[in-house]
């Protein structure tokens, strides 16, 4: 598995990203994650929809909480042709509990905890922490990556407006 350094930090400290780097124009890698009821989910199952994949370290942190709630609010404005997934290494049980407590019902949360296949396939697995780096990927209806935002400082929120602009261009 390839490794890249110097791309992200946590509180200023450098981290190593493991996995294959993906680029705009690449076919979105398919991988297996788990939904909140432990059912396998393939990313290819969202073909025909614009897919926003929000990778976060953990829903139980303030920035990930804020980000996922914001995308949940935005999802109501984007319509049925857009699916927003939040992927983390949190256990599906924790994700389900968090969604219930937060009232998140438009964003689908999925877990990469089992084998980190998403983190490795998208190059956002933090080697030192076995968590995902904060990143957003926008995939078009044909399964091609059209936008990538890797957030330099893991404790910062993404640029929501840039993500939403990329999504609107694909609708």
Protein model, in words:
The protein is of the alpha+beta class and 171 residues long. The chain has a single domain (3-170), classed as Glutaredoxin (3-Layer(aba) Sandwich), CATH 3.40.30. The chain has four helices and eleven strands, in the order βββββαβαβαββββα. The chain has helices spanning 62-78, 92-102, 117-122, 160-170; strands at residues 3-10, 13-18, 32-34, 40-42, 50-55, 82-88, 108-111, 125-126, 131-132, 135-139, 145-150. The strands form three sheets. It has a five-stranded mixed beta sheet. Strands 1-2-8-9 form a four-stranded antiparallel beta sheet. A two-stranded antiparallel ribbon has the order 3-4. β8 (125-126) and β9 form a beta hairpin. It is globular.
Radius of gyration: 14 Å
How far do the termini sit from each other?
35 Å
Q: How do the strands of the widest beta sheet line up side by side? A: 7-6-5-10-11
CATH architecture: 3-Layer(aba) Sandwich
How many helical stretches?
4
**SSE order, as H and E?**
EEEEEHEHEHEEEEH
User: Number of DSSP strands?
Assistant: 11
Major sheet summary line: 5 strands, mixed
Q: Helical content, roughly?
A: 25-40%
Q: Find the CATH topology.
A: Glutaredoxin
> What share of residues are in beta strands?
25-35%
Classify the secondary structure makeup into a structural class. Answer: alpha+beta
SSE diagram, text form:
Blueprint: E1 3-10, E2 13-18, E3 32-34, E4 40-42, E5 50-55, H1 62-78, E6 82-88, H2 92-102, E7 108-111, H3 117-122, E8 125-126, E9 131-132, E10 135-139, E11 145-150, H4 160-170
Parallel strand pairs: 5-6, 6-7
Antiparallel strand pairs: 1-2, 2-8, 3-4, 5-10, 8-9, 10-11
